[in-house]
Specification:
The two termini are about 45 Å apart. The chain is mainly alpha-helical. Helix 2 crosses helix 7 and helix 10 runs antiparallel to helix 11.
Length: about 350
């Protein structure tokens, strides 16, 4: 007989299969869907204000918010990217022409070191980096050859990026317009207590907003400060190195120092003492403190996560999910803590849950 329990079990099985199949269909556009959801959560407060100003006209409010998102996020990124491409092209030409010789720069640094330090490097086998540098140059040459022989694949990747970008904008419009209704539908469909569901959804939204806001602000500030320092010192490709420092700043407590510290060492070793010392002070005080002050303030405060957990989850997330991991990692860590908080409250009903704004 088709008992109600059997019917429900079979329906749940079909529901799981269909849900997994739907996720499989969306998997090729994971990045587009992920960033559409993320940007929708980031710009929802702005959308709500615009909708109120437009007297409830959802389509017009969503379109206006989408245009603001393009102006605030996409246009500056496009301008920086165009400058970045130009400077990267110029750097490549200088490398080919021999104007930039990292082997000679490294040798200059070694020659400027005191004898006791070079003896110590000799014992460690670190003073003779000729073979390592040759392998780096060989790898760069092979990489350039690979890029030249796979131009069609690069074009295909560019086309895929444009398709994903258009899909992201398309989804973003509808998520802005119907996001709260969709969120309420999902909350009501989850077979959990209402207060638990409300707490978990609010926690998820808060963590995503805080992580994106905090990491993006820190990246922009550190990249701008680093690029400004390089421009003031007359270092070629200040925008390029600023973008590199901004990207590396996604790694808390490490980040931009991977770029400015070797440059400061080179300046000090080659006789530009004041420039090197100035860059070191600027890197430690301005760039370093901006990370130590802004990241806990913007990320840790809203997510209520300790700094070390933000660091570990960010690095782990980026190692698993690439650039998307700087959001996914801390979000998973925060949801891990949130689910355990719900579990503890289920075991001890007198432990209250803190519900933030919707």
């Amino acid at each position: 007989m088709k008992t109600p329990a059997l019917q429900r079990a079979f329906f749940l099985l079909l529901l799981s299969v269909v849900t997994l199949a739907f996720g499989w269909v969306l998997a090729p556009f994971f990045g587009a869907v992920f960033w559409a959801i993320t940007l929708a959560m980031m710009f929802d407060p702005i959308y709500q204000r615009i909708q109120t100003a437009f007297r409830g006209r959802k389509n017009l409010a969503a379109l206006t918010t989408l245009l603001l998102c393009l102006l605030i996020v996409i246009l500056p990124m496009t301008l920086v990217a165009s400058t970045l491409v130009a400077e990267a092209s110029g750097l490549t030409q200088r490398l080919k022409a021999g104007d930039l010789n990292f082997r000679a720069y490294f040798q200059q640094v070694l020659e400027a070191l005191p004898n006791w330090l070079t003896d110590w490097l000799d014992r460690l086998g670190l003073s003779n980096m000729q073979g390592v540098i040759d392998r780096i140059y060989s790898g760069l040459a092979q990489g350039g050859q690979m890029l030249a022989t796979n131009a069609l694949a690069i074009g295909q990747n560019t086309f895929d990026f444009l398709v994903s970008f258009v899909i992201m904008l398309y989804l973003l419009f509808f998520l802005l317009r119907d996001g709260r209704e969709l969120s309420a539908l999902v909350r009501n469909s989850v077979p959990m207590a209402r207060d638990h569901t409300h707490y978990l959804f609010n926690k998820f939204t808060t963590v995503v907003r805080a992580t994106v806001k905090g990491n993006v602000v820190v990246a922009v500030v550190q990249g701008a400060l680093g690029g400004l320092a390089f421009w003031a010192l007359g270092i070629h490709g200040a925008v390029l190195w600023g973008v590199v420092m901004a990207f590396l700043s996604l790694l808390p407590a490490v980040g931009a120092a991977l770029v400015w510290a070797p440059v400061a060492i080179y300046l000090i070793s080659t006789g530009s003492l004041w420039q090197g010392v100035g860059l070191t002070i600027w890197g430690v005080v301005a760039i370093g403190l901006s990370d130590n002050v802004l990241r806990p303030l913007l990320v840790g405060k809203d997510t209520k996560m300790p700094d070390y957990l933000v660091l570990v989850s960010t690095i782990g997330g980026m190692s698993l999910f690439g650039i998307n991991g700087f959001v996914i990692g801390p979000t998973i860590a925060a949801m891990f803590m949130a689910f355990w908080a719900v579990f503890n409250r289920s075991e001890y009903e007198d432990a209250p849950l803190e519900n933030g704004p919707s």
